[in-house]
Write a structure and sequence with these properties.
Number of helices: 4
Order of helices and strands: EHEEHEHEHE
Structural class: alpha+beta
Number of strands: 6
Distance between the termini: 53 Å
CATH topology of the largest domain: Alpha-Beta Plaits
CATH superfamily of the largest domain: Protein of unknown function (DUF541), domain 2
Shape: elongated
Strand order of the largest sheet: 2-3-1-4
């Protein structure tokens, strides 16, 4: 799974803001090592330094510059609580907490979901055919159904980052298909 943290630093000069964020990032990395994350599992993925005038919600009382570092930690789900608590103890904000399947496991799960959907379509079609007094022959066409319109955007929005729970929900992979069959008389 991946857990993302943001660490920030502020200052009247860009370099001061950056250095403060860098010191805090070092403290985070050290704490993560103390809770069992090795350096290979911890990666800085982004660092920005912005002037107050470049920030959307800035006020005149805000520091002139703000630096933000984003650090991602890869860990096992049973280690997630220690990683999250270690990050919080250093003052970092949790911005990502999600499980991720390897491409091989995702591909296998997707294949299983498509097989299950195709079998369910055949069972449904056989029940309809029996009610109509005909039998199914070979499948003429199999089409995977994709959500219509903005459903992908809705799904993405519902998959928002969960920063309130240390253990993310299970990953679900499903599929829908439409199958056209040839029919024969019984």
């Amino acid at each position: 799974m991946k857990i993302g943290f943001e660490i920030s630093g502020c200052g009247e000069q860009a370099i001061g803001a950056y250095q403060t964020a860098a010191v805090r990032a070092t403290a985070l990395r050290e704490r993560l090592q103390e809770v069992g994350s090795d350096s290979v599992q911890v990666e800085t993925v982004d660092c920005t330094v912005r002037h107050r005038s470049d920030r959307f919600d800035a006020s005149c009382d805000d520091p002139t510059y703000r630096a933000v570092k984003t650090i991602v930690v890869k860990c096992r789900p049973d280690h997630a609580r220690d990683v999250v608590m270690g990050g919080i103890e250093t003052g970092a904000s949790v911005v990502e907490n999600r499980s991720k399947l390897s491409e091989r496991r995702r591909s296998k799960a997707r294949s299983e979901a498509l097989t299950k959907a195709t079998n369910q379509a055949r069972n449904h079609a056989e029940a309809i055919a029996a009610a109509e007094g005909v039998e199914l022959d070979q499948a003429l066409e199999v089409t995977e159904e994709h959500p219509e319109g903005m459903q992908d955007l809705v799904d993405d929005a519902l998959e928002t980052v969960d920063t309130h729970h240390v253990r993310p929900r299970p990953i679900e992979i499903s599929a829908r298909v439409t199958v056209s069959y040839a029919i024969t008389d019984s």
